[in-house]
């Protein structure tokens, strides 16, 4: 058989017949590695009869509940039998912790679990399990990185759920490249896919991500698996968000919110309350808005600090939200509301470390900047949302009713929102509504 080599980008998986210094696809330097592929033999294929859609029998998938409501929600009800799930996230964010935690409830429901670790020894896992109070007898631990051995062990043990921690440590002996390389990761994932589908075993694989946020090495991995979950969270902050970015068995609109505690990850049932915990009341530069994560409304505090510039150039800083958007909103404030921000330093921050990309928080950014500029506080039980346009208009945003209802639930008394959103409001209780057309009306009302 003739051997052929291809060059594969270890960042994005782009394949070329020759080596490049810079990847033409993701533009990273020095990422191409050589891979040997076997030239395919000539084979004859037979015809396969397609089935009529009408005749295909439908059946609902069997799901294994993890008994952790926040995780089940992201998985649209639980782990589908025979599915391959990828759990990605920064090293140290809590992937192994969460996966060990779900073993308890799944084991309690009588299902066998095989936890394969290529990163920790059996003793280390035992220590962690003790810390997390995991006592189930249904959990088997295997410290191994050789795919061939793991495959045989899975066939022999025949568990309901397999956890592979992590895919970057796994290797197949027949392949020359090192563990973590594109070809090893791809081969290992393919093997697990085959096992999952042929034996109807659910397999969860852990993948570490690089600092750019991509799965280390292979983006290819995402295409191969059924479901991709990502862990998000800030270093130094204890909350963690799990988001589905791909789900062949349900929606990708959900998030799960957790807090890392002494004894593992604990669900946060009410993220709004958590995000507003300890916020200052009655101080200038703070306002509360509601952003939608997936389908869940989360109340967040937007803070601004505006103070005279001591050097020639005013400084602007944005954390948790888009810098350019903040600069644009400040320009709108200068032009349309007459604020002289050119001689002031401005800092805008989403309290709690959340990252928000939604434009619905514009109105709160504008409100907080004005509040700090005027040194007057905004009613702490007032919630404000709406997108701000370049002419200073306040534009409608989706899911207004949900946002207002969330504020009502947490005891907010007033809500300032875009006029165009008012007619969509129905069941909102007794919260006072103030509809505004533009930022001038908004600013007049809140200060
Ligand atoms: P871990 O699950 O090992 O991360 P990953 O598998 O994603 O690399 O999480 C390790 C971090 O979590 C570590 O910094 C310690 C912390 N931790 C707790 O705070 N409480 C706990 O109960 C456990 C087990 C870990
Ligand atoms: Mg780990």
How is this fold's topology laid out?
Elements: E1 3-9, E2 15-16, E3 32-38, E4 63-64, H1 69-74, E5 79-80, E6 84-89, H2 95-108, E7 113-117, H3 122-131, E8 139-143, H4 147-157, E9 161-165, H5 182-199, E10 202-208, H6 220-224, E11 227-232, E12 239-247, E13 255-261, E14 264-267, H7 271-276, E15 286-293, E16 296-308, E17 316-319, H8 323-337, E18 344-350, H9 362-374, E19 382-384, E20 387-388, E21 394-395, H10 400-409, E22 414-418, E23 432-436, H11 439-446
Parallel strand pairs: 6-10, 6-11, 7-8, 7-9, 9-10, 17-18, 19-22, 22-23
Antiparallel strand pairs: 1-2, 1-3, 4-5, 11-12, 12-13, 13-14, 15-16, 16-18, 20-21
Helix pairs in contact: 4-5, 8-9, 9-11
Bound molecules: thymidine-5'-diphosphate (TYD) and magnesium ion.
Describe the structure.
This protein has 447 residues and is of the alpha/beta class. It is 26% helix and 28% strand. It has eleven helices and 23 strands. It has helices at 69-74, 95-108, 122-131, 147-157, 182-199, 220-224, 271-276, 323-337, 362-374, 400-409, 439-446; strands at 3-9, 15-16, 32-38, 63-64, 79-80, 84-89, 113-117, 139-143, 161-165, 202-208, 227-232, 239-247, 255-261, 264-267, 286-293, 296-308, 316-319, 344-350, 382-384, 387-388, 394-395, 414-418, 432-436. The protein has a nine-stranded mixed β-sheet, sandwiched between helices. Strands 15-16-18-17 form a four-stranded mixed β-sheet. Helix 8 packs across helix 9. 39% of the residues are buried. The model has no long low-confidence stretch (mean pLDDT 90). It binds thymidine-5'-diphosphate and magnesium ion (MG). Magnesium ion binds at residues 95-96, 119, 165.
């Amino acid at each position: 058989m003739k051997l052929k080599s291809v060059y594969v980008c270890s960042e994005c998986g782009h394949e070329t017949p020759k080596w490049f210094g810079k990847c033409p696809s993701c533009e990273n330097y020095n990422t191409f590695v050589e891979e040997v592929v076997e030239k395919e033999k000539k084979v004859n294929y037979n015809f396969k009869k397609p089935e009529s859609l009408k005749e295909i029998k439908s059946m609902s998938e069997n799901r294994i509940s993890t008994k952790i409501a926040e995780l089940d929600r992201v998985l649209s009800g639980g782990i589908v039998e025979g599915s391959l799930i990828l759990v990605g996230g920064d090293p140290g964010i809590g992937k192994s912790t969460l996966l060990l935690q779900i073993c308890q409830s799944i084991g309690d429901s009588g299902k066998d679990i095989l936890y394969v670790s290529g990163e920790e020894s059996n003793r280390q896992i035992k220590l962690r399990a003790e810390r997390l109070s995991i006592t189930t007898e249904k959990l088997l631990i295997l410290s191994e990185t050789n795919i061939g051995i793991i495959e045989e062990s899975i066939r022999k043990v025949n568990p309901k759920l397999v956890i592979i921690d992590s895919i970057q440590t796994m290797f197949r002996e027949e392949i020359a490249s090192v563990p973590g390389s594109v070809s090893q990761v791809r081969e290992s994932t393919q093997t697990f896919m085959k096992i999952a589908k042929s034996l109807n075993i659910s397999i969860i694989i852990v993948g570490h991500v690089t600092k750019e946020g991509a799965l280390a090495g292979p983006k290819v991995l995402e295409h191969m698996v059924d479901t991709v979950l990502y862990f998000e969270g800030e270093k130094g902050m204890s909350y963690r968000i799990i988001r589905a970015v791909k789900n062949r068995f349900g929606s990708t609109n959900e998030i799960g919110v957790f807090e890392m505690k002494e004894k593992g990850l604990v669900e946060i049932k009410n993220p709004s309350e958590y995000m507003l915990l300890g916020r200052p009341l009655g101080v200038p530069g703070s306002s509360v808005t509601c952003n939608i994560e997936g389908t869940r409304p989360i109340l967040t505090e937007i803070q601004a600090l505006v103070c005279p510039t001591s050097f020639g150039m005013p400084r602007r800083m944005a954390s948790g939200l888009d810098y350019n958007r903040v600069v644009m909103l400040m320009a709108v404030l200068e032009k349309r509301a007459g604020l002289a921000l050119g001689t002031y330093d401005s800092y805008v921050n989403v309290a709690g470390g959340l990252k928000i990309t939604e434009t619905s928080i514009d109105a709160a950014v504008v409100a907080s900047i004005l509040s700090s500029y005027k040194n007057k506080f905004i009613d702490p039980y007032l919630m404000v949302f709406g997108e701000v346009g370049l002419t200073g208009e306040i534009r409608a945003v989706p899911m207004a009713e949900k946002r207002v209802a969330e504020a009502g639930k947490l005891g907010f008394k007033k809500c300032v929102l875009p006029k165009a959103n008012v007619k969509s409001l129905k069941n909102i209780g007794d919260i006072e509504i103030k509809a505004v057309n533009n930022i001038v009306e908004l600013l007049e009302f809140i200060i």
